């Protein structure tokens, strides 16, 4: 139902950056190793994401735009152990309800591509269209049909900044994937497939990377990897705090507190630590379903997580103080 989709869209697609996030996550879920993003006018005019992932069969194209159609979970029980980034099946349907969306794809093993266009939530018939293996989703004129929402969008520069942040957060967590970001035709990022350390250096800067300490700890099923800024480096601010749970960027109070405390304990004074840390854990022990934009998580055992993060980073930092 169109209205339901538009209302849901308000939740899922707050702004161009949220649409971009859904689209990038779909490309990653499809196993893409190369993803190109084109934005125009801060993403308000155009968001195009092209990937070389597994693609979508012609007959499944309408399904991909159907609300609650997801190819990623078969039952509610599966929600317990979600490993893919998307699973609600509402991303594309929501975006399609508030934009002019074109989905073009050619699945592995298929000779030709196909395309479906959705305008104002109405699906047009599937047509043949040339495409390399993979998928391109093109979102034009976000919120053209919901002026009240469109008014809430900020300037192109601000919306672009949000898109760039979203792109960078995702690119940091997938160094093995090649990414390109263009805005208004200009290349902003060209990131080859590379080692994490090189991706960190590209995105967070040489300053951070050259002094950062590698973190690699585990306890039971908890594993923490990544880089913690050198305790005496001054570069840290809220923007250089990258924390991921099972591959998703999250802002989490428990994690922020544990990490700040580890730094304070070593340095004996307050400072914004800089870090790019990746926590992997049993998906059943973390609820990623707390908000449609999925930036927050809820840990079943938050005390244990706090302790693990604190000790992991503390140990790493303390090693430099001797
Ligand atoms: P979800 O990701 O939660 O399953 P979406 O609405 O984001 O829901 O996508 C719906 C479906 O469309 C996905 O389950 C997937 O089958 C298909 N799809 C979307 N984008 C891509 C892509 N880039 N490559 C392959 N399949 C895709
Ligand atoms: Mg999705």
From TrEMBL:
Coiled-coil ranges from the UniProt annotation: none
Keyword ATP-binding belongs to the record: no
Keywords annotated in UniProt: DNA damage, DNA repair
Domain of life: Bacteria
Domain DNA mismatch repair protein S5: residue ranges: 200-318
Similarity section: Belongs to the DNA mismatch repair MutL/HexB family.
Purpose of the protein: This protein is involved in the repair of mismatches in DNA. It is required for dam-dependent methyl-directed DNA mismatch repair. May act as a 'molecular matchmaker', a protein that promotes the formation of a stable complex between two or more DNA-binding proteins in an ATP-dependent manner without itself being part of a final effector complex.
Protein name in UniProt: DNA mismatch repair protein MutL
Natural source organism: Gulbenkiania mobilis
Gene this chain is encoded by: mutL
Part of the whole protein covered: 9 to 330 of 628
